[in-house]
């Protein structure tokens, strides 16, 4: 029932929703059942757009802050995963009524939650696992995974200018997390981060390198589907020459070749196909010599090697795009000669 209260608010005028729905939600946030408290918090996120702005600023925001602060007082509380799940949604809904100081508080709380650790086991790497510690560790991992899922919402809050100072270290920690699920979630949302950073997206290129170099199939699956838009975003941010693409983004070459090797050696040919298809977008990021010396040999190897037909076809298509963008006639001729042998 709690999760349906925001629907009633939609049917009321803002003042009536303020007097009828908000008090009920406030009371339900103190319910003895964790599931009810989480549902109440989610309903608050859904109902704020139907409340008077002043009420949101003076009642809803302080209530959310109080819930967040309370969640950290007990590291074993199930409320933490609910807060981590809804943090991005609440930040997005409330950011327009927050002061600059309150936005900074939200970001700091997010960073603290994303590094969530259990002080009981700190400094005890060899402690004996028990059912309680196993559950607690699973909750901590889930908190970090949910924080990784909500990372784009926090980037939207601070903007491209605040990313380096306020969020880049947290982004790096999540991208190198011990849990593959956390790293996969970071990878799956990385293209959103690039889009939100806009002309500042090159400040996050180091994270992309780490994810590509992780040699994890699960992480690469999160990156591969959006490789084209990610590479185009880097190209726009790097201020490359429109004609020559000079000086290029050479730091991408090694990690991308590593990722292709990992994908090519696993049994998931669709992943390999996605990565090879993404290579065609490197024409926006690399110079002619970089394409010819580093990327063309990889594509040739796939075309002439023992790979499944869809991967070979993707390589042919990417090679056609790359060849069309080679500015030197002798390089284009060399590619054609190699194919015609």
UniProtKB/TrEMBL annotation:
Q: Name one GO cellular component term.
A: protein serine/threonine phosphatase complex
> MF terms per GO, please?
protein phosphatase regulator activity
- Signal sequence span per UniProt? none
Record SUPFAM superfamilies: ARM repeat
UniProt keywords (A-Z) are:
Repeat
Instruction: Report the domain of life of the source organism.
Output: Eukaryota
Q: What is this protein called?
A: Serine/threonine-protein phosphatase 4 regulatory subunit 4
Organism equals Geodia barretti (Barrett's horny sponge)
